[in-house]
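Trying the structure run again after the queue cleared.
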Amino acid sequence: MTPIAPLITHFLREHLPVERGCSPHTCETYAFAYRLFFEFASRRLGLRPSQLNLEHLDATVVVEFLSHLEVERKNAVTTRNARLAAIKAFMRYVEYRVPSALAQVRQIHAIPKKRHDGVLIKHLSMNEIQAVLDAPSPQTRLGIRDRAMLHLCFAAGLRVSELVGLPLANLTLHPTPSIRVMGKGRRERCLPLWKETTGDLRSWLAVRGDVRVPELFVNAVGYTMTRAGFEYILAKHAAVAAQTCPSLKRRSVSPHQLRHSCAVLMLQATRDVRKVALWLGHADVRTTELYLRIDPTEKLEAVEAMLPPQLRRGRFKAPDALIASLTTL
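Done. Tokens:
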């Protein structure tokens, strides 16, 4: 029997951050998925998580865990597929270190992803974005910080991890205002800033003061802003903005919707999906193509470029009411 604890410990502490160069956020996401998986397996097998062996985690347990996520935890299919991807990543690591488990690993790799409806992503209109940006009070230090955070997140199309982890040293105000962002896969990109965004950042730097952390944005006590902290700030100001923008009422605004909104508006302005991909830091332009499904402009051009078929004209004659009622019977 092969204990699971040493394998998962080395995978999370050495393989992912050192050998693969994964970000701390990626490691935390994987660790959360494994915690859920091991807790489920321990309950099913009647063992403590530290007593689990690799041989216990076969394809049957994995399939039951995926069903547990959807049925009991009410997770979406996308979340279910993400947990499965995390398990398969660990099993790819295992097959090179425990060759005797190769058959077990291959059975887990054979578990397919579940297909799901490809719904349109949610984004905000420019009026809604403006209402959210105007919600923070410019008369207070935290209001100045919040407006700068919201403005930068939208204008640069940043992920939450990129925003809260942005070092002050990566902000350049002269001669051309810009930021250097370390995105997914350790891919760095440099983004210019709007004049209005730069103005909000200057206002924040004027009241930021001396803090003990290198990040640009800090919380009320001077420590690094967290993902949960920014989500709370956005939700608070979205509720205030809903008072002047009715379309925001009864709507949950997530940080990623700011990124989506930036992408949609940039696509409408540039009409070039490659530029949007570079701005967002997508490694594959196919990831960016999902925004084409939102923007009707491309479809309108296709409709206008085609000649509609010439249909024979005629006049509609309503059927007699008595005959129509008898026909339905």
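The two ends are 72 Å apart (CA to CA). Worth checking whether this holds up in the mutant runs.
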